[in-house]
Amino acid sequence: MPPSRSTTTSRDGTRLAVYTYPNPGAPVLICLHGYPDNASLWSSVAEELASDFHVVTYDVRGAGESDNPTNTSAYSLDRLQEDFQAVLQEVSPDGPVHVLAHDWGSIQSWHPVTAPELQDRIASFTSISGPSLDHAGYFLRRWDRAALKQLLHSWYIFYFHLPWLPELAWRKGWAQRAFNRLEPQDETHNRSIGDYVNGMKLYRANVLRRLINPEERRTDIPVLAVSPEDDPFVTTALQTGIARWAPNLTVKVVRGGHWIPRKDPGLVAELVREHTRQVAGWEA
């Protein structure tokens, strides 16, 4: 059954498209997609989990049917947290929710997950292929072999900071072909040119500032860090070496590449069920 669609408005007036797979009375699970995806990334995972959770997905700003602010500063982690809180207030104004996120959805989710004012509003966090930028800033300062390996995996981030060329490459299709060589994509990704182009503001608004001047962001929320072993963009060491910041941590290294929510939705669903039952205390 297709999800129901609604709209909520963030603090700065940005409208967000929200999709709900209704299961009244079930625990609420909010899913955040990454770049260059939109909420359709979660369609198969949501169908797997719809009998266990009241599943909610949304297009992050700049993607899908949500508004795409033109100013790069509108894509800062503070604005993204306000988006999450707007959706949270809409779908679960009183109780805590579980959070499932991938790639940039996970990167931005670390911001509310480590926000002191939201510690009692998030019951668990499942993070796939998306580290906290603040945690990454401390990780890269080590200048050891693991940090240098991650820098090699992150080459595209520096490319995204170039003027006009990355936008041109997406519009011409050159970049899609290059990224597909790293990890082939299927034909059902439902991405638009806007998803590719607008989302680069996420990198430009946040990455260098956070890596150069990271904050000490901690959480006691139960975190499951999922690292696909063949991820060409994020190393396992960066994703999982975070017990200093998230002591209530479980780590899973799984087979697969970066886009496991699309390639193996059954595995993602089972990981979420296991985490919420065994770690966060939810019983089916």
Automatic annotation (TrEMBL):
Coiled-coil blocks: none
Listed InterPro entries: AB_hydrolase_1 (IPR000073), AB_hydrolase_fold (IPR029058), Epox_hydrolase-like (IPR000639)
Domain AB hydrolase-1 positions: 27-260
Name this protein carries in UniProt: Pimeloyl-ACP methyl ester carboxylesterase
Signal peptide: none
Keyword annotations: Hydrolase
An MF annotation (GO) of this entry: hydrolase activity
Annotated organism of origin: Kribbella jejuensis
Highest taxon of source: Bacteria
